[in-house]
Structure formats: structure tokens, C-alpha cells
Amino acid sequence: MSQPLLLDLVSGGFMLAGAFFFLAGTVGLLRFPDVYCRLHALTKADNLGLGLLSVGLALRADLWTERVQILLIWLLVMGAAATVCHLLARSSLEEGVPAWGEDS
Amino acid sequence: MKRVSPIWVGILALVWWLLASPRLSGWWVGIVAVAVGTAFHVALGGRQRRGMRPGHLAVFVPWFLLQSVRGGADVARRALAPSLPLAPGFLHYRIRLPQGPARVFFVNCISLLPGTFSARLEDDDLTVHHLAEPEAGLRRLAELEGRVGGLFGMEVARG
């Protein structure tokens, strides 16, 4: 097996796995019963999806600066996702958005 | 006293340079962005006495990556299972890390552990939402807090 083909298979596998987790996160966003549960789907599944996608793309990158850029974007998105998740949950709590299963 | 850390300005400039390269024609936007970032850095407390110990990242990062893979897989499994196996709710956790960057880092990392995210922080009382299994969530929080403490070079008393 030639090297480029092997690289394509490995990076393609990572990207497909990433796409799967984005899909699962979206399914969770649609199926989960309240805003708090949906935030789990958004932050965790999408972060893993983006991570796998980043690995797949980094394997294909030609320059090391592109790899560092991809890693940096992933880190920035991870930090933003965690902060936004916390802020959305806090404002939902303060506005009294009921959680699923709670008497309201 | 609030102090601008030159390392911080350097990191911001490096981040901009990496994101903008190879075309650096918009360099003046970068200068504005670094200036705004530095202003936020000063407004939010400036240089901190205790920072992260970079050497300890070699231990923390692989553990954290494994946890975020588990967290993503766990939420994907629950989302796709026909029976939708959820037992969500809120739990309270008493933070032992002192105020400062270590605490902020800890609270942010919680959202990528399996099954938990931080929802509200009042003094030392952290409200955490769990998707299922609150006992396992509490155990992981305590482990994460200990590891973050190690990363920032501080002892966290066992609670």
C-alpha cells in the first residue's frame, strides 16, 4: 500500500469519526428534554467531533504552521465552548428555566 | 497591584501571528486585537502570582484528552440510544482550590468531563449539572480538582 493512500485512509477515518460525533451531538440537541441536557450534547460531543476532525485535517496539512493553526483553533473553540456552556447554564438558572423532571 | 505580563502580550501576539499567517497584510488588526486582549487581561486581574507549571501539562493533557473522548462517547451513546437513558439533575460541590486562575481552569474543565458541566459558582459553592450518575460525577470532580491543583502547584486537601 502506498504511503499517500494509507495517509488518506487514516485521516479520512478520523474525519468520518468526527462527523459521527457532530451528528450524535445534533441528535442529542434534538432529543434531550431540557436546555441543561442539551448543553451536554453541544459541548462534549461537538468538542470530540471537532478534535477528531482536527486530527484528520492535521494529518493532511502540508506545513507545520497549518497544523499549529488547526490545534490552536481547536483549543480556542474548546475554551469558548466551556465558557459559553457555563454562561448559558447560569443565565438559564437565574431566569428559572425549569429542568426536566422538576415540578414547576 | 495590576501588572501587565509581557509573556501574556507575547502569547497574544503569537496567537494572532499563527492564525493570520501566511498572509500578514492585516497586521494592524492584530495590533488592535492584542491591545484589546491585553486590556481585558489587566481588567480581569493582570499578572497572577501562581501560574500553571508547564511541565505538569505532560501528565494533565493526556488524561484530559481521554476524559473528553469518554465524555463525548458517553453523551453520543445516550443521545442515540432509543430508550434515551438520562437521569439529569443538579449537584453541589464545595471547591477547595483558592480564587484565581486554577479555580477558573478547573470550572472550565468540568464541562468536558463525562456527564457534568458547571452551571453556577457562588463563593465556594459550585452548582454542577449531571446527565446521569451523580456519584460518579462527584468522584470525577474531586479527581479533576486534585489534578488541576497539581498542575498549578498547590495542594488540595482531601474533602
Short characterization:
The complex is a heterodimer of chains A (104) and B (159). Chain A is an all-alpha fold.
**What level of helicity do the residues of chain B show?**
40-55%
Mean pLDDT, all residues of chain A: 90
Distance from N terminus to C terminus of chain B (CA atoms, Å) equals 33 Å
Instruction: Please tell me how large the radius of gyration of chain B is.
Output: 19 Å
- Described by the principal axes of the CA atoms, the overall outline of chain B is globular
Q: What is the count of structural domains of chain A?
A: 1
In the sheet with the most strands of chain B, the strands line up as 1-3-2
State which percent range the strand residues of chain B make up: 5-15%
Order of helices and strands of chain A: HHH
Low-confidence stretches of chain B: none
End-to-end Cα distance of chain A: 62 Å
Report the biggest beta sheet of chain A as strand number plus sense, adding barrel if it closes: none
Walk me through what this model shows.
The complex is a heterodimer of chains A (about 100) and B (about 160). Chain A has about 100 residues and is an all-alpha fold. Chain A has one domain. In chain A, about 85% of the residues lie in helices and about 0% in strands. Chain A contains 3 helices and no strands. The longest helix of chain A has about 30 residues. Chain A is elongated, with a radius of gyration of 18 Å. The termini of chain A are far apart. Chain B has about 160 residues and is mainly α. Chain B folds into 2 domains: about 40 residues; about 100 residues, no CATH class. Chain B has 5 helices and 3 strands; from the N terminus they run αααβαββα. In chain B, strand 2 and strand 3 form a beta hairpin. The radius of gyration of chain B is 19 Å and the shape is globular. The relative contact order of chain B is 0.14. The model of chain B has no long low-confidence stretch (mean pLDDT about 90).
